[in-house]
Structure formats: C-alpha cells, structure tokens
Amino acid sequence: MVGVRPSVNGQGVGRLCRVPQIPERIHELTVGQLSARSGAAVSALHFYESKGLISSRRTSGNQRRYSRDALRRVAFVRAAQRVGIPLATIREALAELPEERTPTRADWARLSEAWRSELDERIEQLNRLRDHLTDCIGCGCLSLESCVLSNPDDVFGERRSGSRLMAERSVARGKESGDRR
Predict the structure, then answer these.
(1) Of 49, 54, 78, 80, the residue nearest 67 (C-alpha)
(2) HTH merR-type domain location, by residue (predicted)?
(3) Which of 119, 145, 148, 166 has its CA 20 to 30 A from that of 49?
C-alpha cells in the first residue's frame, strides 16, 4: 500500500512522492519503514537513538524495532531542529514528558514557547552580525575600532597592535604543542 504526499525533504515543495503506508495492525516499524515514513535518513535515526531522542527494542535477530509513536517523536525532533534548537535541548524537552510518551500539540506549544526567547536572542545576534558585516575588512588585525566581529569596542587595540598579538598567539600555540620555533 502506497500513499502520495507533498515532498518537503529536499525534493522540492510541491512535488509528490510515494510514502509507504503501514497497516494499522503493525505496531512496530523497522528502521527502513521509520525512515520512509518520517523522511529521515536511516543514519539520522541511528544518530537520534544514540542521543536518546528515540528508542527501539531489538529482536532475537538483533534488528531494531520502533514503536509507531517514534514517528511523532522524529517529526518533533526534526521540527525543532529546523528552527535551530540544539539536540541536547530537544532531548531535555522530550525527557520532561511523562513516561517518554509521544509529544502532543499542547507539548509542542509549551516547549516552543519556552524556546522562543532563545530564538529571539539568536535572531537579534544574527541581525547585528549581518548589519556590521560590511564594517569588517577581514584582515585579522584586531585593532580596528569598528570591528564588531572579532574585536568589539577595540579591546585588543588598546593593549597592542593586532598583528603582533596574532603572531604571539601562533608562537604560544606552537609551544603548547611542543613545537619549537
């Protein structure tokens, strides 16, 4: 049984792709079925499992089997990743759910509200970075008063010139690694 749905996994929005439909009587999914249904690569599912975001049981033949609720957990993880939430934060959020149950719409609303201020802060930081990008000439001198990227408020320029500072850093790193110059 195959269903058709719009693709959003890199094949272009608006294109249709065939997604295998899993009969309701099947309560556990293989990693291939979970991958096909969720749009996540098998390697990504293994990675999510290694990070504690989803879980599986092993069959007597040592094959992974995922409960159907893993589909919603994977969707939750991928949605949170798309908006820039780190995996560690996602794992903490999923751990808050009672008995590791599947996230609901209310769970998503509560968690996404908690993440909102972090995302707003990141957006402001990126906007500042974008707005000051033209001020940076990228020479690495670290003494320009207007270099808000690598030297906000000309901290390094007050102490000494940047080129010497960078050379000193290179020598210090060489000594730390046992390199004698």
Answers:
(1) 54
(2) 28-96
(3) 119
The domains located in the chain, with CATH, are 2-115 (1.10.1660.10)
Give the pLDDT confidence score for residue 35 in this predicted structure.
94
Does the pTM of the predicted model rise above 0.85?
no
∠ CA(58), CA(64), CA(70), 5° rounding? 115
Query: Are the C-beta atoms of 28 and 58 separated by less than 8 Å?
Result: no
Look up residue 146 and give its two tokens.
């207007």
Tell me the HSE value of 155 on the side-chain side, using a 13 A CA sphere: 5
Helix (H) or strand (E) holding 16: strand 16-20
- Structure confidence by residue, pLDDT tens digits, 146-167: 565 655 556 655 665 545 445 4
Cα separations (Å) of 64 from 49, 94, 141?
10, 21, 54
The amino acid present at 41, given as its one-letter code, is: A
